[in-house]
Amino acid sequence: MNSTAFKGLWKKEWIMMRGYYATVMVFNILWLLFAPLMMETGRYISTTSALMIVHMFYMAGMVLHSFNKEADHLDITLHSPRSGFGLASVKMLQSMTFYFFSLALVVTFGIFTAGRELTLELSQISGLFIRMSVFLSGIGLTFAFILFLLWSLHQLMKKYIGGLSVIVCIGLFFAITGLISSIQGSNLYETLTAFGPQFFAYERGGPVGMIYFDFGVKALTVGKIAFFLLLNGILLSLGMWVLDRKVEA
């Protein structure tokens, strides 16, 4: 895809999605400013952490909203495999750009408020928030790519089986997530992905003023990063391939 086509698709995506982006940013701002008051926690770090967790679903929401707005015009928009790849790439890239921009703003706010509320050094607070962001982003991106694959399958199957395609996709969602969980919980997975240095090894315990995020995930290694990249590459490629088949069908 040449630069002119990329810019055209990017601008088209921006015009189509800017209302959604604005809604998300307004929600972020209102939550960060007023959630501690409404929840009577008095601590901004708690509500900031909650908003970071909500970000796991932002990427999936943006991708599905964007593709759903295109759904009625896919046969016109996608007239070749190259156009299908280009459209999906731009949508994914713009969604990820906005996702990380939104998350970075929330993390910055969290680090600032945590520095005022806790007795920790800035480097400790920053490290903990970055750790949380990495794990949440990993979960959020995989979730988004799974839903993109299932959305593409739904667009292809509904032509042949109608509304039953929704039931099939729901079943596939649980099957795919269950398979991924089984693989990651196996001893073979731990053995194969244990190579390389460890990142974000968890601290156990700590004095008063310690913030500690635990999502049941062990230390991150180079092997696990490679597995994550391979998994998401497969999911994204399958989703794009199925989307191309929808046009050819």
TrEMBL record:
Protein's UniProt name: Uncharacterized protein
Ranges that cross the membrane: 20-38, 44-64, 98-116, 128-153, 160-183, 225-243
Phylogenetic classification of the source organism: Bacteria, Bacillati, Bacillota, Bacilli, Bacillales
Keywords: Membrane, Transmembrane, Transmembrane helix
